[in-house]
Amino acid sequence: MLAIIGGSGLAEFAGLAISHRRPAPTPYGEASAPLTFGHLGGRPVVFLARHGDAHSLAPHEVNYRANIWALRDCEPLGIVAVAAVGSIRADLRPGDLLIPHQILDYTWGRASTYHEGPGSAVHHVDFTEPYDRRLRRRLCAAAAKAVVAVSDAGVYAATQGPRLETAAEINRLERDGADVVGMTGMPEAALARELGIPYAAINVVANYAAGRGEAGQGISLETIRQVLEEAMEPVRRLIETMLASDDHD
Ligand code: HPA
Question: Where is the site labelled Important for substrate specificity (predicted)?
């Protein structure tokens, strides 16, 4: 089955034929919400709302270790994570979708590995390519098939939040090579890698990042909410098309 993590604007997955929900305790604590099991595009999926059912967990409060561990218990073939981002590039507009290929991590103080604490051996994972190449390719192919416009590569910068960035911070992220900025992509991607689960993301551009485009005068959170609400329909279509095109579960 495929696991889907829904971010801001996607606390529920419309169109998912739900069979049941199950609380998700793990050795790392409770996941953000009960897991929702169902079918999409005729295939089994498990869905998890990253910020909780009531969107009550800020990016730095999310228990990423519990979330990824809970999904691992479902033995998914992969995780598709949906996450809102701000765009640093003029040509990536609010409402656009991006399948990122690289990550810059500026987060701090988050529990970001399963390999720490008493008795745990030092463990390094290869993270050269943080997103699973095959899963990214399947998402891009499904986008073409579903006639959903996506950018097929980009560098995602993960910031700590929960505040948005300053204009100077966005300039710095651009100099570092970032295309989009969000708050939840890390340590999520690294934890999935530690557990050996193929992981890819769909970034939904909610706004121009601070100081860019119409965000030059500040970012309207109400506009972000509206943009995300509208952008979730193509996101759903994209994932559904990918599942319906799969030749296995
Ligand atoms: N910055 C960080 N995270 C975000 C933004 C942003 O501008 N928009 C949506 N998530």
Answer: 165, 221
